[in-house]
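Escalation from tier 1.

The customer reports that the assembly of two entities below gives different structure tokens on two consecutive runs. Tier 1 could not reproduce it. I'm attaching the input and our single run for tier 2 to review.
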Amino acid sequence: MPCSGELNELNTLSSDDHLVSLNGVHAGYDGKSVLIDVTFKLKSPFFAVLMGPNGAGKTTLLRVIIGLLKPLRGDVLVYGVRPWEKPEVVREIIGYVPQLLLVRQDVPVRVEEVVAMGMLSRLPPPRRLTRRIREEVSKALNMVGLEGLEGRLFNELSGGQKQRVLIARALVRKPKLLVLDEPCSMLDFKARCEMIKLLQKLHVERGVDILLTAHDISPCLILEPTVILINRRVYAVGKLRDVLRPETLKLAYPGLTEVEGAIILGEDHVAG
Amino acid sequence: MPVNAVLIPVYLAAVLSGLLAGSVSPALAYSKSVTFGITLMHSVLAGALIGVYSHDALHLPVNPLLTAVVMSLTASLLTAEAVARGFPEDAAVAISVSVSVSVAVIMTYVVALTTPYGVSKAFGYVFGVSALATWHDVVRLTAVLVMVIPLIHLFWCEFKYVAFDPEGAEAMGLPVRAYRYLYYFTASVAAASLAMSLGVLLAHIIITVPGLLALRAKSPNPFKLSYLVSVAVITSGYALAWSLNIPPSGGVGVVASGALVALLVMRRGG
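Tier 1 run:
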């Protein structure tokens, strides 16, 4: 069973510049660790899924990687850069897509403004939409299949379209790595599959590394992603077929129930 | 309304108050901080009471407007800090309001004990002195406008982003905390000045209504509507007060209430 950082192909890398690596990371809030001794490496190009039950620390781990949370212990390198030491460098490398749930839906913001935020945040005030920024925004919207929606209000779009707008906002910065927190939440199965297809297209055609969190990875199955199984600590890192085994899943999902020919994951069981 | 030289500063103060309220109101509504107006107004009252006590009882050269602004800023910073430390915005507002109200109640008692007219003087801030506005008030409001309006417009894009998606904004490198502080600072300065003119009660309404209407209208650029509504509410309120022979604050209150009812009807219709 492949456990944290044990994948041979990942451990034999020579340069940190192509790696997202975490080594013995403890991280949390108010001095209390949510993540315990998290260690793994991902070699670019990668399409990786962080999988685990509710409260497993998936979002916390993403916050550590993008530099919004400094680890209590351990080391993090994103393509050779420590996120909390050089946040301005990491921001140029990573495009972050937060959970749709955390975005205020009642604020009347046009799609164009949301996507432009990705570029404008690099500039000093006053931040105004220029023709060049508008062109970049249109290109980013084209990439996610939302061409022509620049003038629409964000809160009038469907869940899938909103998620694509947030991805376009990350893409407009031309990131090397896209970090997505639950991009498939609040979407039906068809929309989830379309979302994963879009991410795959960005990964294959544009060479963007992908790291996303997900409860349900079934739409990703055809992609054979690298799966990081986490419940406060990392229980397995590897290809889908190696990680998605009952004996491995049982470690991260204490509520797992085996029935004939299938397993039921207990989402709310957090490891102690 | 009659036009004579004495009333010119009154009308001017009304229009300037409308512009000031119209500038801060959208950000309050968009950041779901309408209840933050309550913090501002209670803290302005508490600060005014401290100022009156310092001036009338302790005979210190203190202007109640200054203490009102300082107290309002303190409450704003307390709110911003509580939000930055993870409190939900409504809980942070509740903390600031409870502190401000406690200070106001204690200071009302102290002022009543130590000065003959202090409480009535301080409560002038509750009801406002807009009917007695002088050129001094016009200059004060203009000075505050010159500071607040450019700041709000310069950073409106950022204020909106922070309201829309604070985590995303932070991840992209926007100094979310600094923008929150900046916004609370400008709002508190505007609120203190408005409270001096319109009174604490009315100022709360007038910084709430235009932004809520703009939000309801789903306008990505809400300032036109906000300025229009706030100036219209105040000036038509003055006209109503004049024709009904009631205090100007009362007239503005009636018109603002009408606008709020219209907002509720719009909500129901929407």
